[in-house]
Amino acid sequence: MFNKVLIANRGEIAVRIIRACREQGVATVAVYSDLDRDALHTRLADEAYALGGQTAAESYLDVEAIMGVIERSGADAVHPGYGFFSENADFARAITERGVTFIGPPPEAIEVMGDKISARLAAEAVGVLGVPGTTEFITDPDQVRAFGAEHGYPIAIKAAYGGGGRGMKVVADEAAIADAIESAQREALAYFARDEIYMERYLTAPRHIEIQILADSHGNVVYLGDRDCSAQRRHQKLIEEAPAPGLPDDVRTAMGEAAVKVAKGCDYTNAGTVEFLYEDGEFFYLEMNTRLQVEHPVTELVTGLDLVEQQLRMAAGEPLEFTQDDVTITGHAIEVRINAEDPTGGKFLPSPGRIDTLKVPDGYGVRFDGGYEAGDEISQFYDNLVGKLVVWGRDRETAIRRTLRALGEMDVRGVATTIPADVAILEHPDFRAATHSTKWVEDTLDLSEVGSSTDPGDDAGDQEPTVRKDISVEVDGKRFAVSMWVPEAAPAAGRAPSRSKRSGAGSSASGSGEVTVPMQGTIIKVLVAVGDTVEAGEGVCVLEAMKMENTVAAGKGGTVTEVRVVPGDSVGSGDIVAVIE
Ligand code: MV4
Fold first, then answer.
1. How many distinct structural domains can be found in the chain?
2. How far is the CA of 259 from the centre of ligand 1 (A)?
3. Residue 436 lies in a domain
4. Which of 124, 313, 413, 540 pairs with 398 at a CA distance of 20 to 30 A?
5. Are residues 450 and 340 in the same domain?
6. Ligand 1 mean position to 115 CA, how many Å?
């Protein structure tokens, strides 16, 4: 086993890894950005070193700074968590060359799976098939036309070096081919700096089911059952569960065995996930994620295995202590991602800020994997996952009820969270019946009535002194006299979250001719050109920030006299993207 592990990450996953290391008697080294000097992962680790910088690029993605800390701390292994360097083959290679173990797969496996076409070919080579499609790059619209004539529509056009659904375009018919190719290439270039694209038949309502695998360095590969991650919005998973509900046993086994074949085929080691789409009783290989995933705890709860402990053991060269026959799935587990986003009206606006109150539930079957405590700050510069509520029950219905019970106990203030949307999903008959697909949250679930989770709720738990306020409200044309006990200083109604800035994703300061971005991010689309006439409120560009697309709108109408950005540009809060006169 290792002496000292450096965790090249932050937030809940860094905390999760620190805890697992401590249980194995392994010392931990945290790294932190300027904004994370007092973050939970920094506080919990045995040692912590500054990387400097604020944005991820200036801190957690600064290779030289991390190499420097590896050297200084004497760490003999690095755990990358998810995101950041977790699927970066060059990083894995660079630290391995220094004699430091990368707790993850070999760089060659990361490379094969990083390129979606080679990943498809690698699966095909071991007899595991993706959605019918091509393994050549699209260079001519006629290729798509020919594919459509043979397999029909819709067709998915995907970025070869992409992932996470970015750059994917759905072609409904022949007339839409040229536009789809153009926009898929443009988005692929903006996101991934490569514009190669390929195509597949598009499945209209699949479920997303993935298989967790473990592979040691002695040739043993096992699958630890499946997870269903179909409850997602714009490729951000909201709720995950294990096992996937309603999957026929023979399909479950076939999927697990296919995942093992894919892993063996690319000489995989350590923990990994093979993703499939499942529709009408058939499953298709999608891609392989060569890292520990956010939703790994649901697998832990139904298998009884600590996946981070297993990762450490496998990376240290130990053989797996169990075989496929030893793996049993017990009961049902649900993970709810709690993000600092305001789901009001289904919008999911980022809600960075300071967490004033964070009370997490417990009780039988309830686990909270958090990255923050009350008083900590959620920065606009990083992923806004506050923590994950992970619940076990003896069956799915028990797990769902227990999750709702636990969410009811949870109290987060200061930032808005996705909890109201999570509750709406868990209470919905379609989710209860497990008839939902990856399209369901966006197409069917009605979040228009969902409000902000920063509503003060019951004042009984408040520490602050309260005063009685009598007001009248009108409901359905009938007047009611209402007494409220509110904090002394607060307004009588509609208490606003204390410090969360809600202006986030809107337009620039109204009336100004300088169009500025409200937060740090990447420009993915420019909607105007110099000389265009725009109206106040019209979109000027699309900014991707905190994994969300936000349209930046003109503050006033007029003629565009300057456009200062192109797709792919990184911008900071307040940067001017265009000028209108
Ligand atoms: C698809 C698809 C339907 N047909 N491919 C989106 C993320 C990327 N990893 C692959 N994705 C999809 N590929 C074909 N041929 C539907 C999706 C998809 C999806 C997949 C997994 C989880 C959520 C999703 C949400 C929308 C679309």
1. 5
2. 18
3. yes
4. 413
5. yes
6. 16
Cα separation, 574 vs 561, whole angstroms: 18
Ligand 1 atom with the shortest distance to the CA of 229: 22
User: Within a domain: residue 504?
Assistant: no
User: In this predicted model, what pLDDT tens digit does every residue of 86-136 receive, in sequence order?
Assistant: 999 999 999 999 999 999 999 999 999 998 899 999 999 999 999 999 989
Q: Which domain holds residue 574?
A: 509-580
The verdict on 386 and 294 lying in the same domain is: no
State the closest ligand 1 atom to the C-alpha of 287, by its place in the atom list counted from 1. 9
Residue 119 lies in a domain: no
Q: Taking CB atoms and a 6 Å cutoff, what residues make up the pocket around ligand 1?
A: 131, 156, 163-165, 168, 200-203, 206, 208, 232, 235, 277, 286-287, 438
In residues, how long is the chain? 581
The pLDDT tens digits of the residues spanning 125-145 come to 999 999 999 989 999 999 999
Does one domain contain both 186 and 213? no
Q: How wide is the angle at C-alpha 296 spanned by C-alphas 158 and 391, nearest 5°?
A: 125
Examine the domain organization and report whether 20 and 92 are in the same domain: yes
This prediction has a pTM of 0.81
Burial of 457 (0-12, 13-18, 19+ CB in 10 A): exposed
- 541 within 8 A of 525, measured Cβ to Cβ: yes
CATH number of the domain enclosing 49: 3.40.50.20
Residue owning the nearest CA to atom 16 of ligand 1: 203
